[in-house]
Amino acid sequence: MPELPEVEVTRRGVAPYLENHIVSAVVLRRSGLRWPFPPDLPALLSGRTVRATGRRGKYLLIRFDHGTLIIHLGMSGHLRILPLDSAPLKHDHFDLVLGSRLMRMTDPRRFGAVLWHGCEDGTVDEHVLLRGLGAEPLGEQFSAQTLYRHTRQRSAAIKQVLLAGDIVVGVGNIYASESLFRAGINPKTPAKRISLARYEKLAEAIRAILAAAIEQGGSTLRDFVGADGQSGYFQQSYFVYDRCGEPCRICGAAVRQIKQGQRSTFYCVNCQK
Ligand SMILES: [Zn+2]
Predict the structure, then answer these.
(1) CA of 247 to the centre of ligand 1 (A)
(2) Which of 94, 124, 269, 271 is deepest in the core (most CB within 10 A)?
């Protein structure tokens, strides 16, 4: 599943081909993915100039003067920039055509989304899918204070609280295990029991891990132009994730795997208290 770093790298990859370019056509090859496509999308976007690209959590935002196109890659979606005459394959559902190139959305499992939020409905942050999102982990509004203040009443385990996404977005299953390891926090610890000093370490770990993943993903940028464009998680060497039974890279103890809310959590009992 594409996570925040993959979406941000996708944004950076497609941005030069979108920003300040005029949409010449929109191609919809089915009626929708997770939700129906806005049927008037071709009329809404044709002839309009892309002003900017952005991202909120895992939502890619393509901004026009009269509104914002919101794209979510779902479980299996990806975007590529291709020459205009590229023949579509079975899972290619949506094209945004910009002169001699097009941005194509491929999504075999069809959990992705293409939605429109017009200016008349307020800023895009007010969209029903965006307004409940927590702070951007790489933005200025995210800090240890954000985590501390919003967890004083939360007795749920910190791993679960991170995954919930209402305090901070983009800390998916892999990044939650990894950042808790780096911060030395046991994933089962109730969020309200964690001190501000420990949240300082956690906030720093979250930022560092996501920034490193984005940086690593930058080397795959060429995949967005031509080729097959298939990308999973960026190849990173993890401290604990998916390393059940293997020695902890710090203390040598066997990494443990537990289930928290149906998701696997990996941690080291020695290093994480
Ligand atoms: Zn350890």
Answers:
(1) 8
(2) 94
Residue 201 alpha carbon to ligand 1 centre in Å = 17
- Joined together, the tokens standing for residue 57 give 């959590």
CA 157 / ligand 1 centre spacing (Å): 20
Strands annotated E in the chain: 25-28, 52-56, 59-64, 67-72, 78-83, 92-98, 101-106, 113-118, 256-260, 263-267
Q: How confident is the model at residue 218 (pLDDT cuts 50, 70, 90)?
A: low
3-class SS of residue 7: helix
Rounded distance from Cα 91 to ligand 1 centre (Å): 43
How far is CA 200 from each of CA 96, 142, 163, 179, 204, rounded to the nearest angstrom? Answer: 42, 11, 18, 12, 6
Alpha helices in the chain (DSSP H): 4-18, 41-45, 144-149, 158-164, 173-183, 196-217
**pTM to 2 decimal places:** 0.90
**What residues have their beta carbon closer than 5 A to ion ligand 1?**
248, 250-251, 268, 270-271
Distance CA 67, CA 149 (A): 34
219 alpha carbon to ligand 1 midpoint, in Å?
30
What is the rounded distance in angstroms from the CA atom of residue 37 to the CA atom of residue 113? 8
Residues noted as catalytic: 2-3, 58, 263
φ/ψ (deg, to 5) at 142: -95, 130
Neighbouring C-beta atoms of residue 169, cutoff 10 Å: 23
Kindly report the number of other CB atoms within 10 A of residue 84's CB atom: 13
What mean pLDDT do residues 163-186 have? 96
- Number of C-beta neighbours around residue 156 at 10 A: 16
